Amino acid sequence: MPEKDPARVRTNYAVFPIRSLTAVQSPANDRKICFITCVNDEDWYSEALLYLKSLHIPQGFSAQFEAVRGAKSMTSGYNEGMRRGADAKYKVYLHQDTLVVNKNLVQDLVDIFADNSIGAVGVIGCRSLPKSGVWWDGLRTYGRVLHACEPESVVDSHCMEPEGAYMDVEAVDGLFIATQYDLPWREDLFDGWHLYDTSQCREFLRRGLRVVVPNQEKDFWCIHCPKEKPLAAEYKGYQKIFVKEYGAELRPEV
Description:
By secondary structure, the chain is α/β, with parallel strands linked by helices. It has helices at residues 42-53, 74-84, 105-112, 196-206, 235-246; strands spanning 8-10, 15-17, 29-39, 62-69, 88-94, 98-100, 118-122, 124-126, 141-150, 153-158, 166-169, 171-172, 176-179, 210-214, 222-224. The longest helix has 12 residues, at 42-53.
């Protein structure tokens, strides 16, 4: 990574002060990928693991699978998984009900991360965050996910596609986030199960690193199988925390 001013970094949208760059690390083993999942449903994780273990692993690469059980929050679980897979340059944080169907996922990620200005890759997100901090409220959403919420009910959530191989965005959904740098998840702020993903995207952007969504016009990368349920009551509380921490940095489209 190029050297950056320790007090300020430039993103695609503005220049913001940051606290520290010391937390950004590039692990040594660039031929290893670690898949990290917080698990509280063994049946779902077992299914997800079958898909992960069927991926094509490029010659010379190795894969590690870390299931974090009993995590008190998504951020704390992901930080624990990051520590366990500390030497792997590439890490994929994914939900236990996310099934990765792109067999060439690892090579696709390596190709995208050949640009060392890219910090994170997601499969669906928004170009510019609205003032609410909720990515799906953004005016321009990009990406694709196949949602299988109920038996015999499958929805192809297909947003706009990047014109090239990938598109810069401000936030991606937490069902799948891949990284090539280790940046601690903000468990000091998000001690539950909401907005940890959008926070992590903001933390990458604060450090001058890009977040992107790949082109999936020919085929989707993931099937997500969440259970249909109302938005959790605590979501609004974490939304207020997010806006307080990052609101001044947002430049929503109008």
